[in-house]
Amino acid sequence: MEPFRFHNPTTLYYGKGQIEKHLADEVLKIGRRVLLLYGGGSIKRFGLYDKVMNILKDAGVTVFELGGVEPNPRLTTVYKGIEMCRQNDIDLILAVGGGSVLDCGKAIAMGVKFDGDVWDIYQRKAQATGALPLGTILTLAATGSEMNAGGVITNWETKEKLGAGSPYTYPAFSFCDPENTFTVPRDQTVYGICDMLAHCFEHYFHSTPHAPLQRHLIEGVMRTIVEYAKRVVDNPTDYDARETIMYCSTMALNGMISMGIVGDWACHAMEHEVSAVYDIPHGGGLAILFPHWMDYVKGTNPARFASLAKNVFLVDGTGKSDEELADIAIEKVREFYREIGAPQRLADYGIGDDQLERMAAQAVRFGEIGHFRKLGKEDVLNILRASL
Ligand SMILES: NC(=O)c1ccc[n+]([C@@H]2O[C@H](COP(=O)([O-])OP(=O)(O)OC[C@H]3O[C@@H](n4cnc5c(N)ncnc54)[C@H](O)[C@@H]3O)[C@@H](O)[C@H]2O)c1
């Protein structure tokens, strides 16, 4: 294991009825002037908006609203939010939505306390100097943003999609009620599953020696995702399935399964370049890239892939070499994506080869990517070409 320090300050509320019981108290601990942040309005259609507004009004909270946060949230919306917070002396940002709304909240929170352009933090030219408190109500199981400090913002003008985080951007509290995910459309449910599985893959493919518990924990989360994915895709109002999948998504990226290891993260870096140019759903991009990345790097440590085959996809490894099991594991991953209806190729989104060079160059602009296997520009190009 690598030496590590672990601190996750987010207070997490899971399950039915928690918003009604605890939201007002959590908000009032922080302040009375709230910026309510949300996306395209699904929270209005399924009643969550009214529920939250009533709780806040009854608690005597003054609410300012910023709706319309885009999927793959844009820097322009972040700027708008920063301005609103400053003008209205906001105490707390309450982000209600999927990962995009939560990430936008984190960027606004950092921006308000930063004396300069918040984009500099995403471009790694500066570090966050503080953040407004953020609370979240999650409506889509995917990113783990409800219990981590990271966030991803797109600068649509420069076609850049960059992630950043800081110790200041952990949500102060997050509410995860699986019923709030019942209305997530089938395709978004699938993308969410692809995203949480991708987070597990990013941790799982590390090169830190001797981390047996981490391997077992990550395999446990992956096994559960594989077991419940089809059920939740086919039965969107199956409470137990939604709850299990939601818990998997939180656990996949809240730091609990990845202490003391350094994950790979090359596929995320490549996907960000694809969605920065083509604005495709993050989870869809990951489902396309991962099997091709796996094919490309499997020789680095076939035993890890063999373990994936045996412990996640329950393949009987008797008499098979690690190399054979690695190929079986990758085929199982492909089969899983096919079964839940995830995209298979970049062409599924109408993406051709004309921007590959640019995307590959951008992916490595801060240096080589990946820790399981380091990738340079040519490697990225090879993987992107294979994914067409
Ligand atoms: N912060 C992190 O740790 C982290 C990790 C991975 C990805 N990301 C980023 O998060 C973003 C993706 O977030 P996401 O996958 O949660 O999706 P999202 O927030 O972009 O939402 C996708 C779509 O689902 C809709 N939606 C959300 N909840 C709904 C509901 N209950 N009913 C009906 N529709 C609903 C949204 O309006 C939107 O149209 C990307 O920008 C990605 O890069 C962040």
Order of helices and strands: EHEHHEHEHHEEEEHHHHHHHHH
Q: How far apart lie the N and C ends?
A: 37 Å
Helix content, binned percent: 40-55%
| Overall geometry | globular
- Ligand types: nicotinamide-adenine-dinucleotide
Number of helices: 15
Strand content: 5-15%
| Radius of gyration over all CA atoms, rounded | 20 Å
Sheet having the most strands: 6 strands, parallel
Structural class by sheet pairing and helices: alpha/beta
The number of distinct β-strands equals 8
Task: Explain what you see.
The chain is α/β, with parallel strands linked by helices and 388 residues long. The protein contains 15 helices and 8 strands. A 6-stranded parallel β-sheet has the order 1-8-5-4-2-3, sandwiched between helices. Helix 10 packs across helix 14 (356-363). The longest helix has 23 residues, at 212-234. It is globular. The mean pLDDT is 97. Residues 39-40, 42, 71-72, 97-101, 103, 139-140, 142-145, 148, 150-152, 180-181, 183-184, 188, 191-192, 195, 253, 282-283 line the site of nicotinamide-adenine-dinucleotide.
Question: Which key terms come to mind for this protein?
Answer:
oxidoreductase, BDH-like, alpha/beta, 388 residues, ADH_Fe/GldA, binds nicotinamide-adenine-dinucleotide, ADH_Fe_CS, two-stranded antiparallel ribbon
